[in-house]
Every structure is written in C-alpha cells, then in structure tokens.
C-alpha cells in the first residue's frame, strides 16, 4: 500500500486508484477552514469522523468533539 507521507494530511480511507491501493485523506489546512460530511444513513460519515479523530490523537494534534446524538460514544 502506498503511504501518505505528508504530515499535513489526515488519511482516513483507502482507495483503489489505477489498480493500486492507496490511502486517501484531506490536508490539515483544508480541515481547519470548514468541512461537511454529507451522506445517507449508513454511508460511513461517523466512521470517517472516527478515523479522523484517531489520526489526530495519534499525531498529537489537539481536538474537540461534540457528539450531540452519541454516535461515537460506544466506539
């Protein structure tokens, strides 16, 4: 698997691009502006958010998480 080497990218998914499995992510600068996760129920919005939180914790980045519906509480 190809690694995302840039420390300024949060990898939160994997993709098969041109028959090569690679990590997929978003630049930290883009995340700091605004971000929307949009999709139908069961499409993985909470999983993406969970993976981003875990990546931030592992990288030593600070974060605040407001979970009004408790979707992440049992994970």
Distance between the termini: 26 Å
Question: Count the helices. How many?
Answer: 2
The value of Rg in angstroms is 13 Å
Strand order of the biggest β-sheet: 1-2
Q: Overall 3D geometry?
A: globular
Number of strands: 2
Share of helical residues: 25-40%
Topology of this structure?
Blueprint: E1 9-17, E2 20-27, H1 28-33, H2 45-59
Antiparallel strand pairs: 1-2
Structure description:
The protein has 75 residues and is of the alpha+beta class. The protein has a domain at 9-59. 28% of the residues lie in helices and 23% in strands. The chain has 2 helices and 2 strands, in the order ββαα. A two-stranded antiparallel ribbon has the order 1-2. The chain is globular and about 40 Å long. The mean pLDDT is 83.
Distinctive features:
alpha+beta; 75 residues
Describe the structure concisely for a colleague:
Helices cover 28% and strands 23% of the residues. The longest helix has 15 residues, at 45-59. It has a domain at 9-59.
